[in-house]
Structures are given as structure tokens and as C-alpha cells.
Design brief:
The chain folds into two domains: 121 residues, 3-Layer(aba) Sandwich (Rossmann fold), CATH 3.40.50.2000; 168 residues, Rossmann fold (3-Layer(aba) Sandwich), CATH 3.40.50. Helix content is 44%, strand content 14%. It contains twelve helices and ten strands.
């Protein structure tokens, strides 16, 4: 069963704490459940049920969220990490995150299990119809670790290419705009903000290729979604992205703008072949990132936790 408080929006920080530490443990105690699975990394300080927690990444502990307020960095970093030790089992999205978690906390490695999360089936329904315009799509929160600036820099050598960034902004977006203006490519960079699912599917269907240039990812949903949508993908050779894309995408140095320019140009020069390769690899990605597979693995972890 899924626990929720009707009419309560936990996305603001203070409400999130109220949910995590008061409303969630009360709801869990009243639910009749045998186990509580906290799927967003934060855990109640006091809970009457055994707990399984999913830790998507340890960015809060690695300083990758330096733009966030100090109280948020403490709560989602040091405070949450202390509570992970109490969990019966810890689920992580990738082997990279498992290694990160073990290296920067003192949790028992034997209680940590890797389960790749599933990708929403709606991405399997994407019917590719790339538009004639040369468009690069970058999906994700516009924050420093997502590294959109390297793609903006790459545009200098690609005069007829546009970059669309779809995701909520942070102050880093202002920095990216300034970089684009300085390089003379601002008119070819568009920040769309958060987009509704239907619009996101349109972007996946119509773009030329997708990029995942992040310096730090616990999993790399944008890359996995693009693979499942059958899009040619370029990804950074960093963190979990190496594991997530495997041999299904070209991996690039996250700091080498020239390499990104060349790789984008290579796809543009052979669009039909790149599209065919992405389509051929799509079924394997859909199988690898299916929710049925993730659910079966998670069920086994629940049994071990009880």
C-alpha cells in the first residue's frame, strides 16, 4: 500500500520534515503493514515498523548540492545517513551508488542491494519522428552537477544546432545563460523549465539526440529514458552513467567541450544510422529498465528484511 496524507504537499522543505518525522510514521503504525519502505532517501527518526530505504545517491554527502540551503544539506545528508544505519535493508539505484554509500558512511555493505529502477512505460510508447531541425535535448534539473554548460560550450563549433534544456531551474541556470551569451550562442539555447509529461514525450519524439552530461548521477534517469525512447544518446563518462548506458551510448569526458562538439557532429553526419542503432538497442533497454524486473528484485529484499 502507498501512504499519503490527503491534501498535504510535502515538496516544501518544512512540510517534508513534518511528513518524514511525524505523519509518515503515524500512518505506517496505523496501516497494519509489516514493513515500511521509504523510497526517497529520508527516514523517520522513530518508527514502529522495520524499515527499508532507497538511497538514490549520496550527492548531499559529496557536496554536489552546494547550492542548497545548509539546513537541507544537513537533513538530507548527515542526518539521513545516520538513520540509514538503522534500516533493515538499503536499496540503491546503481553499483556506483552502492560503492559511494559504503565509502562515505559506515553502513553494513551486506545490507545494501542494487536495484535499477524502472523507466515509466510511457517512454516505450514514444514514436520517433525526428524533425529536420538539429536539436539536442538535455533533461533534468538545471543544476551544477548536471553540467549543461559543457553542451552550451560545444555549440560554438555547431552553428546550426539548438539545445533544449527541460527541467526545473536553480541559480546555475543564470550561469548557463551568461555562458551562452558570452559565447554568442544564446539564441540557440532554450530553457523550458519543468514540462508536463505529454510535452516531454513530444520532445523525446522530435529531437535529434539526447545528452546526459552530468558529472554526478546516482542513476541517470534522463539517459535511461532516452534509451527506452529509442533516441541516440551521448553521456558523460562519469559516476553511474557508465553503468546505466553500457555500450548503448557514446561516453565522453564531462569537461571536454571539443569532444562533445565532435560527437554531436558525428551523429548529425549520420543521422539515419544513429537512429537505426538506437532503435536496435531499444528493446534491451526496455527490458533492463522495466518496473516488473525492479519489483521482483525489491520483493526479494522485503523478504530478507522481515
Amino acid at each position: 500500500m502507498s501512504l499519503r496524507a490527503a491534501g498535504f504537499d510535502p515538496w516544501r522543505f518544512d512540510r517534508r520534515v513534518v511528513w518524514d518525522q511525524i505523519l509518515l510514521p503515524l500512518a505506517a503504525a496505523r496501516s497494519g503493514a509489516q514493513l515500511l519502505h521509504c523510497t526517497s532517501g529520508s527516514v523517520p527518526l522513530v518508527c514502529s515498523l522495520p524499515v527499508v530505504v532507497t538511497v538514490h545517491d549520496v550527492a548531499w554527502l559529496r557536496g554536489a548540492q552546494a547550492h542548497a540551503p545548509a539546513y537541507a544539506r544537513w537533513y538530507f545528508g548527515t542526518f539521513s545517513a545516520a538513520l540509514w544505519k538503522r534500516a533493515r535493508r538499503i536499496i540503491v539505484d546503481s553499483a556506483f551508488t552502492r560503492d559511494e554509500l559504503v565509502s562515505c558512511t559506515d553502513v553494513d555493505p551486506e545490507r545494501v542491494s542494487v536495484v535499477h529502477p524502472g523507466v515509466d512505460p510511457m517512454f516505450a510508447s514514444v514514436s520517433r519522428m525526428p524533425q529536420p531541425a538539429k536539436t539536442v535535448l538535455c533533461v533534468g534539473t538545471v543544476e551544477p552537477r548536471k553540467n549543461a554548460a559543457i553542451v552550451i560550450e560545444a555549440l560554438r563549433a555547431l552553428p546550426d544546432v539548438r539545445l533544449l534544456c527541460a527541467g526545473p531551474p536553480t541559480p546555475y541556470q543564470t550561469e548557463c545563460v551568461q555562458i551562452a551569451r558570452r559565447l554568442g550562442v544564446a539564441e540557440r539555447v532554450e530553457f523550458l523549465g519543468y514540462v508536463e509529461p505529454a510535452r516531454l514525450l513530444e520532445l523525446y519524439a522530435s529531437c535529434t539526440l539526447a545528452v546526459a552530461p552530468s558529472r554526478y548521477e546516482g542513476f541517470g534517469y534522463a539517459a535511461a529514458q532516452a534509451l527506452c525512447a529509442g533516441i541516440p544518446v551521448l553521456a558523460a563518462r562519469s559516476s553511474s552513467l557508465v553503468e546505466v548506458v553500457g555500450d548503448d551510448a557514446t561516453l565522453l569526458d564531462p569537461g571536454d567541450a571539443g569532444a562533445w562538439s565532435q560527437a554531436i557532429a558525428a551523429i548529425l553526419d549520420a543521422r539515419q544510422q544513429a537512429e537505426a542503432n538506437a532503435a536496435e538497442r531499444r528493446p534491451a533497454a526496455l527490458a533492463r529498465f522495466s518496473w516488473a524486473r525492479a519489483a521482483a528484485a525489491t520483493a526479494g529484499i522485503y523478504k530478507a528484511a522481515l
